Amino acid sequence: MPVKVPDSLPASAILRGENIFVMSETRAEAQNIRPLKLLILNLMPNKIETETQLLRLLGNSPLQVDVELLRIHNRPSKHTPCDHMNAFYRDFEQVRGNNYDGLIITGAPLGDLEFEEVAYWDEIRAIIDWSQQHATSVLFLCWAAHAAFYHLYGIKRYLREEKISGVFQHRRVHEHVPLLRGFDDEFWVPHSRYAQVSLDQLKAHGDLKVLAESDVAGAYLVVDQNNRNLFVTGHPEYTRTTLQDEYRRDLAAGLTPQVPNHYYPEDDPTRPPRASWHAHGALLFSNWLNYYVYQQTPFDLNDMAGMTPWE
């Protein structure tokens, strides 16, 4: 089954070109089916790129998914046309009264700021609090995962001596967990961030369980005790060239970034990069949609109040 998106969303044409089944609103309206309703809070500067990355993974599921896009504020975006934002994005007040099967909150390029210094920190806190009653499952990506650790559990992150950038090997900590079904014992994940949360602190917290980790990147997959919140500290949604685009952007800005680790053949940035994480990323999103959203959500979203997943 496909992911349902607005007919004119730029990601639609891109994904159809990749032979990913994307259903238009027009066709979906003719079907008598209860699709999963997902909300994506997109905090990344290039909205269209991030939309496409996430929809690519969501479209890999056999479930029909109805996606809505949410913005954190209505100020003009420097990297996305205003017409696009106004046509496809909703403000929080427009969705506050709704319930959703799932919510995804993306990362944000705010790695060196304290959370209280973020201009929209109050809005982020409000949406996280709202999500605990209005979404069956919440998937926090990268910066959003760190923000949620801090807001929900008081766990602070720390700045690394140097940015972690590249593709790193990870291992499963638990085997018989629905989210990890089909995973290899070891797998690769892209990371691109300045901050990190202590692995020991996460493991010591009684309300959290670390499912996968890396010697270099630390905790990667973490769930809360009710499996309602999933924290993903890396970027399984990245395309093959995303790290290269970031590296070249920093070079063009006069910075001296390190070559992303385990990304270019023989660490040579003049050669085409290799993607070693796409299968894992697709499986992660498929397992989340199936086991943590579809298998747990009520048929009538109005019945969500007071529901605890896995009861």
Would you kindly provide a written description of the structure presented here, covering whatever features stand out?
- Helix 1 crosses helix 3 (47-58) and helix 6 crosses helix 7 (143-153).
- Strands 1, 2, 3, 4, 5, 6, 7, 8, 9, 10, 11 and 12 form a 12-stranded mixed sheet that branches.
- This protein starts with a strand and ends in a 17-residue tail after the last helix.
- It folds into 2 domains: 3-160 and 172-238 and 277-303, Class I glutamine amidotransferase (GATase) domain (Rossmann fold, 3-Layer(aba) Sandwich), CATH 3.40.50.880; 240-274, no CATH class.
- 30% of the residues lie in helices and 25% in strands.
- The chain has 311 residues and is of the alpha/beta class.
- The chain has 10 helices and 12 strands.
- This is Homoserine O-succinyltransferase.
- One of its GO terms (biological process) is L-methionine biosynthetic process from homoserine via O-succinyl-L-homoserine and cystathionine.
